Amino acid sequence: MNVEKTTNLNNRFKPHKSVTAMMLVVLVTLVPGVASYLYFFGLGMILNIIVACITALAAEALILWWRKKPVVFYLKDCSALVTAVLLALCLPSLAPWWLTVIATLFAIVIAKHLYGGLGHNIFNPAMIGYVVIIISFPQIMSTQWLNPDATKAIDSYTAATPLDNIKTELDRGQTISEVTEASPTLLFGEFGAYSWEWVNLAFLLGGIALLYLRIIRWHIPLMMLGTIFLIAAVFHYYDSDNYLPPLFHLFSGGTILAAFYIATDPVTSPNTRLGHIYFGIGIGIYTYVIRTWGGYPDGIAFAVLLMNMKTPILDYVTQPRAFGHPKKRHTHITHKKDSQD
Amino acid sequence: MKEYLLILVSTVLINNFLLVKFLGLCPFMGVSRKLETAIGMSMATTFVLTLSSMTSYMVYEFLLVPLGLKYLKTIAFILVIAAVVQFTEMFVHKTSPVLYRVLGIFLPLITTNCAVLGVALLNIQENNSFIHSILYGFGAAVGFSLVLILFSALRERIAAADVPKAFKGNAIALVTAGLMSLAFMGFSGLGNL
Question: How many structural domains compose chain A?
């Protein structure tokens, strides 16, 4: 009996994959998402991904060489590639090449290697890269997206994202139903944002594969998506003319991608299960607040960074009781006794 | 009521004194090495900031304005803040010797915390009412405390990281503060609810 238990435990906690294998699996599960993105928004994304990957690998190699670390060994873990691909997926497909280069350099050099490389960074590198350029070049970031109907109507080649559109229209005093009547493809598709819903669905497929392969755990994605859904539902049914329906929030922008691939980054998220739950809820709340009332088209990147910032404190607060030690309440009492003595 | 809530949200998140206005950076760097001292410091600062924004408002409205001495406001506020800090120091010394020992040199440092003087001067500049001033000071202090505590927990983690030699210590701390400030930029635009 005892023996069986120990072997079970061993199997359960065995680190079954190396970092390289994990990162490669993550890259492979991204394929359906990227493919559907290319189908709906043209091939421009491929260029972004290639530029980001080359920049990331070059920057990483240079810094490793400069710090006299084994270059090939660290390049082989593919973490820079994952950062680069995730970052490229957040950029508009018509973004100029230098925008991608700046974002990637910030992500790899400042967010990752200034802190000592993989495992030491406190902020998600891809999100730092994204936030730096959305603050510095808001114009490009909100207009250089490819219109999903570009092949049909050549005069409107570029477009803003549905989330950005609705923000502009609401600011003008329009209601959601007025906007959808005026131009049906501006916002809604079958159930989410126009065209974006299928991209998000494809990313969801990859995310479920990650869950099935136990690369990530369900707490963060479920809590994050659940929180966004719940808040959005409450506001939508309270005032459906000014607040978007919950499914639109889940299937637009980078919600699904962030929930499964970005928020679950093991380095920058808490270590405890309870911490994961708070982390996911926090990202959900911040995302909804910044999307709905903030000045930026999508709040996910900011939400992830704001929660990255709270990761050490969440770890501290949700620290499990060490085995064999009494609960905290008791230690307080003994302390008092000690000081009285 | 909604107005007061907006003042709090605005001072804590949107116009955070540390990360958006960059006031009060000396204690932000000096006391953030350990979580415990950061918590103590933020409690002391919250107390002093709320009290000093109240007293400096009263000194300005009931003393400087009637006497026509508006131009003395900076010096008067420094005096008021120093007095409030002295009072807090005496209070902490009597009530909690442990906290007093932990805070040590940093308690008098609140006197030179530019956020405290900044709040008093901004209150006058923006013509805030009495209640408004107190809330503004309290909100600023809560924002300061929030960021200071988060930052100290981050620094405890960074202390264990393999940071390049040239960036060890305050350099990486300032880089981190910059990145935190980037994240706080996300709140911009929230004010026009």
Answer: 1
